[in-house]
Amino acid sequence: MVRKRRTEPPTGGEGSSSNPQESSGVGRGRGAPQQPQQFGGGPHQGGRGGRVPQAQRGGYGGGRGRSIPQQQYAPSEYQPRGGRGGAPPQHGGRGGYGARGGMVSGRKGLQGASPRTVPDLHQAIPAGLSIQPVPSEAGSSSSGPAEPSEVAQQLSQLSVQEGSTSLAIQPASTKGMKFPPRPGRGSIGTWCIVKANHFFAELPNKDLHQYDVSITPEVSSRLVNRQVMKKLVDTYRESHLGKRLPAYDGRKSLYTAGPLPFLSSDFRITLSDEDEGGNQRREREFKVVIKLAARADLHHLGMFLQGRQAEAPQDALQVLDIVLRELPNSRYCPVGRSFYSPDLGRRQSLGEGLESWRGFYQSIRPTQMGLSLNIDMSSTAFIEPLPVIEFVARLLNPDVIGRPLSDSNRVKIKKALRGVKVEVTHRGNMRRKYRISGLTPQATRELRFDDRGTMKSVVEYFYKTYRFVIQHTQWPCLQVGNQNRPNYLPMEVCKIVEGQRYSKRLNKRQITALLTVTCQRPHEREQDILRTVRHNAYGEDPYAKEFDIKISEKLAQVEARILPAPWLKYHDSGRIKDCLPEVGCWNMMNKKMVNGGTVNNWFCINFSRNVPDPVASDFCNELAHMCYISGMAFNRDAILPPISARPDQVEKVLKARYHEAMTKLQPKGKDIDLLIVILPDDNGSLYGDLKRICETDLGIVSQCCLSKHVFKKSRHYLANVALKINVKVGGRNTVLVDALSRRIPQVSDRPTIIFGADVTHPHPGEDTSPSIAAVVASQDWPEVTKYAGLVSAQAHRQELIQDLFKIWQDPVRGTVTGGMIKELLISFRRSTGQKPQRIIFYRDGVSEGQFYQVLLYELDAIRKACASLEPDYQPPVTFVVVQKRHHTRLFASNHKAVDGSGNILPGTVVDSKICHPTEFDFYLCSHAGIKGTSRPAHYHVLWDENKFTADGLQSLTNNLCYTYARCTRSVSIVPPAYYAHLAAFRARFYMELETSDSGSMASGAAVGRGGGAAGASISRSTRAPGASATVRPLPALKENVKRVMFYC
């Protein structure tokens, strides 16, 4: 170890940006302000905006067009009038914002933003909205909800303040607030029994006590805290703790089954650190103060489980969770709510110095059957415990070992090793550990330091002191410890400490390797879960015994129903006009799209060097023919011959071909309908660049095809691409027969708009990138098949959608309103000729701990958007959260009642036993499995003014899953939520101009919904807009693009 004496400020190292593409190309202006198109037939469409001080600006979220003062804000079709366009009937005296509508605004605690002058620019403007910060954790599906203050009053005193420019809700208590109760259980479908990975937990009959723990000097490491408390319990359990065995959360709380023999007591604990060789190195003394804080009452938990109390007692649940985690915490490596160990399964290499560890997820949950322990198998990436030199060789390639590092390789090493803990190997049994903070700017052979007044080189020092000859003197040293007093270690004397989870972003190859490891058939996963429960031996767990917690070793047997698949309508000109899917699948043979789109003017660009022009032409002909026989009006002749181009000239080539085509078409008053693009299989940032240029600059829809599919020309592949092209040019592929015959409850009886919303967050390790919000909404009724989508960039890891509703002051036009909801409502009115009289809102990506904040904020935005169109326009709203990041798995009890992959059949729904004790939720497996174990979607209703029955909402959700436009399969989550995810994923390309390892979303490529390493648990904020730095807006989508399903 060499410590450099600093005589000058630290030398700056290489750039540490984890994604260089994030620094450019965001929110570029696209031309001069334009006169807006009249969106809904009236004079006002919400307003455009320019620069604002906060982060809530969208790609094109928010109404566009000219705005007028507030008293004239409503488009003509939203003014009260008779006939079908009039206001919906009011329910229970809910006029405008009466006893049941909207959310609180302008009450105590609200902070108004100062009015801003907003020029009439092309970019939408956010309101200055603001909620007090409320931290939450997204990865925890069983974490308790945040506690909003006076939520019941907020929900009962819903009001809109027309001049308000901010929204502030300060949550503090959930007392009195209830989500909708379960409206009975469903009865439609074929009854069956399934097994769930929930294990019944008997509620203990113990007197639980909570104690505050203070450890001085304070340390940030939970591991050290646990070591201190373990030593304390081992030393004083018999003499001072009344023989109690406490459970400790690693921070500030200690729990016991019964009281300790004191109210407050101090302890002195000495920890002896030891090296691996057993040599005692140093001793540290800690003062521990244990003080009685509270009693955790299990009576209220019992009342909640019986449905006799509305609020879940989170303190009692937390105690039980900590007790059951105490033993695994000492045995395994904890990550979030999961535990990993190389002893729980074979390690698998993921490449580049990473390996996968097997583990299990564990969480105690309140359910209808009582307390349940949810156990699931899990895998995640760890750094291999290699010598640092070997790790670097695997990270780059072995050829670099003998050469000086290039700048790019230096940056790659620095990113991979920053924060990693290493131990030294050159001092025998003295295996001291350090954490890497960076690399030295100079090579090892150039490093010199002051050793008691004598300048020595690092190479000389290691030889004279340790008789160690440094081989790789051309490489930098590792910089460890404090940045102000850096210590230098040559790479070859360091080894990576075992058990360090890799939390940064995995590349495509590593993700594929990890998915291969985690992909298990249902029967294998079920057996692994049972083995894990037996291995954990909860019956022998001393902590479970102490607290009298008993865990069953049998999977829960749960009643389920298999909902019938819906009939699908195709065009009458095809041989097959109606289709009944079988096991979640069907095909396009002998069928024609119910509404075929038109493609008259198209051309092709080939960016793949290994695809010759004749092959490209032949593929385009085959694709055009497939579109034609599938029911589209598709011109077989392109307006320009296909050309080959280099990927690094994508923008130049696209614009040149676009202008060449428009030179031909513009005199005839025509536009380009479609661009077909052939991409290399490994295309890096090309796909994202192409989509950004086409959709935000040129205004054309495109279909990308990978070269491997171009050569194969599989009919199945061509048919799937035809489906995507059809919806991109405004067609419909299929429609539910029940929708056309007006037989869908709560949808067909009156004009209904169905929304889907999602927020995608940056990958792990990207600390400054904005989050992307997307909202889609159905644009046809009664078909509910076509969805328009809006996107918006917002503050980093912000979960609340900031651009749902916006309001600001303009010096000329007065109060101006806009936002995603308003624009989509106006668009629905323009498309259907009717205004929505019912709203169904599917919200993806919200954890249980965020339910209250998301509901309060986003339902209020929906209310305000409706009221901004007409003062008394308040259609009833149903707000449903869609969750895929949970750990409930369902297994067939009868292995004959399975699909081809061994999974439960599509349409399997569960609304009993493992569901919430009182609230309206259900698990629905709407898709057929392909590989691995199917994950059912969890739907939880947070607000329901439409009074859905269990059968009504379950059947609607299941049936919608058969209308997904991109394939002839039912999908795993309801399509509006799926489309919102696709739109948000697409919008990230508009911002990240040089997407490196994100891969391609070209036709045929799978789009993962996780967005990171398996098992990741990343916190997401539910703080309100305006709480962080300004986010640059996304470039605006062109008008003709956002009218169609461009994200498919």
From TrEMBL:
<dbReference type="Pfam" id="PF02171">
    <property type="entry name" value="Piwi"/>
</dbReference>
<dbReference type="InterPro" id="IPR045246">
    <property type="entry name" value="Piwi_ago-like"/>
</dbReference>
<keyword id="KW-0943">RNA-mediated gene silencing</keyword>
<dbReference type="InterPro" id="IPR032473">
    <property type="entry name" value="Argonaute_Mid_dom"/>
</dbReference>
<dbReference type="GO" id="GO:0031047">
    <property type="term" value="P:regulatory ncRNA-mediated gene silencing"/>
</dbReference>
<dbReference type="InterPro" id="IPR036085">
    <property type="entry name" value="PAZ_dom_sf"/>
</dbReference>
<feature type="compositionally biased region" description="Polar residues">
    <location>
        <begin position="153"/>
        <end position="173"/>
    </location>
</feature>
<keyword id="KW-0678">Repressor</keyword>
<feature type="compositionally biased region" description="Low complexity">
    <location>
        <begin position="133"/>
        <end position="152"/>
    </location>
</feature>
<dbReference type="Pfam" id="PF02170">
    <property type="entry name" value="PAZ"/>
</dbReference>
<feature type="region of interest" description="Disordered">
    <location>
        <begin position="1"/>
        <end position="182"/>
    </location>
</feature>
<dbReference type="InterPro" id="IPR003100">
    <property type="entry name" value="PAZ_dom"/>
</dbReference>
<feature type="compositionally biased region" description="Gly residues">
    <location>
        <begin position="82"/>
        <end position="104"/>
    </location>
</feature>
<keyword id="KW-0687">Ribonucleoprotein</keyword>
<feature type="domain" description="Piwi">
    <location>
        <begin position="674"/>
        <end position="992"/>
    </location>
</feature>
<dbReference type="InterPro" id="IPR032474">
    <property type="entry name" value="Argonaute_N"/>
</dbReference>
<dbReference type="Pfam" id="PF16488">
    <property type="entry name" value="ArgoL2"/>
</dbReference>
<dbReference type="GO" id="GO:0051607">
    <property type="term" value="P:defense response to virus"/>
</dbReference>
<dbReference type="InterPro" id="IPR036397">
    <property type="entry name" value="RNaseH_sf"/>
</dbReference>
<dbReference type="InterPro" id="IPR012337">
    <property type="entry name" value="RNaseH-like_sf"/>
</dbReference>
<comment type="similarity">
    <text>Belongs to the argonaute family. Ago subfamily.</text>
</comment>
<dbReference type="InterPro" id="IPR003165">
    <property type="entry name" value="Piwi"/>
</dbReference>
<keyword id="KW-0810">Translation regulation</keyword>
<dbReference type="GO" id="GO:1990904">
    <property type="term" value="C:ribonucleoprotein complex"/>
</dbReference>
<dbReference type="InterPro" id="IPR014811">
    <property type="entry name" value="ArgoL1"/>
</dbReference>
<dbReference type="Pfam" id="PF16486">
    <property type="entry name" value="ArgoN"/>
</dbReference>
<feature type="compositionally biased region" description="Gly residues">
    <location>
        <begin position="39"/>
        <end position="50"/>
    </location>
</feature>
<dbReference type="InterPro" id="IPR024357">
    <property type="entry name" value="Argonaut_Gly-rich"/>
</dbReference>
<dbReference type="Pfam" id="PF16487">
    <property type="entry name" value="ArgoMid"/>
</dbReference>
<feature type="domain" description="PAZ">
    <location>
        <begin position="387"/>
        <end position="498"/>
    </location>
</feature>
<dbReference type="Pfam" id="PF12764">
    <property type="entry name" value="Gly-rich_Ago1"/>
</dbReference>
<dbReference type="GO" id="GO:0006417">
    <property type="term" value="P:regulation of translation"/>
</dbReference>
<dbReference type="InterPro" id="IPR032472">
    <property type="entry name" value="ArgoL2"/>
</dbReference>
<protein>
    <submittedName>
        <fullName>Protein argonaute 1-like</fullName>
    </submittedName>
</protein>
<dbReference type="GO" id="GO:0003723">
    <property type="term" value="F:RNA binding"/>
</dbReference>
<dbReference type="Pfam" id="PF08699">
    <property type="entry name" value="ArgoL1"/>
</dbReference>
